[in-house]
Amino acid sequence: MKKIVMRLLAFFANKIIKKYQPKVVGITGSVGKTTSKEAISLVLSYQKKVRSNFSNYNNEFGLPLTIIGLKSPGKNFVKWLLIFWKAIILLLFKDKNYPEFLVLEMGIDREGDMDYLLKIVRPDRAVLTNISHSHLEYFGSIDKIKKEKMKLLHGLKKGGVAIVNSDNDFLRNVKEELKVLLINYGFKPGAHILARDLNFVLPDGDLKNNFYGVNFKLEYKGSVVPVVLPGVISKSSVYSVLSALAVAVSFDFNLMDLIGCLKNIKVPAGRMNVIPGIKNTILIDDTYNSSPESTLLALDFLQSIKKRQGRRKIVALGDMLELGNYSEEGHQLIGGKISKLDVDEIILVGERSRDIGRGAIAGGFDKNFIFQFKESGEAGLFLQKRMSEGDVILLKGSQGIRMEKAVKEVMAEPMKSTEILVRQSEEWIKK
Known about the structure:
Elements: H1 2-20, E1 23-28, H2 33-44, E2 50-52, H3 62-68, H4 77-92, E3 101-105, H5 113-120, E4 125-128, H6 136-139, H7 142-154, E5 161-165, E6 181-186, E7 193-201, E8 213-220, E9 223-230, H8 235-250, H9 255-259, E10 273-277, E11 281-286, H10 292-304, E12 313-318, H11 327-339, E13 345-349, H12 354-362, E14 370-373, H13 376-386, E15 392-396, H14 404-410, H15 417-420, H16 426-429
Parallel strand pairs: 1-3, 1-4, 2-3, 4-5, 5-6, 6-7, 11-15, 12-13, 12-15, 13-14
Antiparallel strand pairs: 7-8, 8-9, 10-11
Helix pairs in contact: 1-3, 1-4, 2-8, 5-7, 10-11, 11-12, 13-14
């Protein structure tokens, strides 16, 4: 039955694409897909009707459901019939409100996944955010991960444009592998869409009444424009904004017209969000997922926050999953990094995270300030007791570790958890 539903969804989604001919932006990458999806949708919706994936609808079920325009009914057979009826109606009659642009996050876990998604829809623009060790367990090597994700760029429609993060080590020479127009973005000289002179205004005191975010200079074709992004505290989110601007200029949008709308950017839940904590503390919620590369970026930001008198820095890190044979090395790498920073305490969740502790101790970190737990909720309750006024706490872990449960235990307004935290739907809360 599952295969039948998949095939029907793919069939109808493909036919709908052919009928309505929307411009399609496909997005893939090891990290940063969702934030890029949100930024691209924001920029394009300034002038066009846009639809993007609902939540994490980026696989063989979610992608066609997004194209049809309905959410999954779970195991409700009658509602599935209604979805297929909606698809038939879209094909029989012209829907004047069908979006002009589809911004589609295209996630892959295993070899062959991208081939299936490209049978449903081929993009006009293909965004590759980066290549990292995420999902290495299922691919076996970085080269195989890159090969699978590069299929999106090779699968572009005729006249399509590839948009690539040129700062990523595995994508620097990607131009040599492509036969399509390439626009790249990044912080390093040579990028077509270049951000320079980044200045993070860091969170401090009353978060509701004090500005925090980032400002930088955007350079494109010799012109330099100042950009301000309220609430954005990570380089990864700036990368997402750069990808959005690259997509926009590839469709001949006027760059200057778009700068103003960037102040409305919203960082998705669990991606370097600043949340008030109990005891007048600051939480940095990066609990959506984790990999060595994204954790290093989060730690770099934590290090940039100056310690005022009495302020401590605490990291609460869960297992980084799906790293395969890189797991031990990747976790110890993070521990070694922490040992070189001004972090006061380390709270770890999960069996694999023990290697973070081992890496930290090997680097000289005091083992008496490393605490290990099996469950994230248990770690959150412990953290309640350890926190003091003014502390800054970074919380991060892979999806399966559910570190958002720890955040809920220490956030100042837990009644707002469904609005603020990741994975707060009924389906996730029951897990």
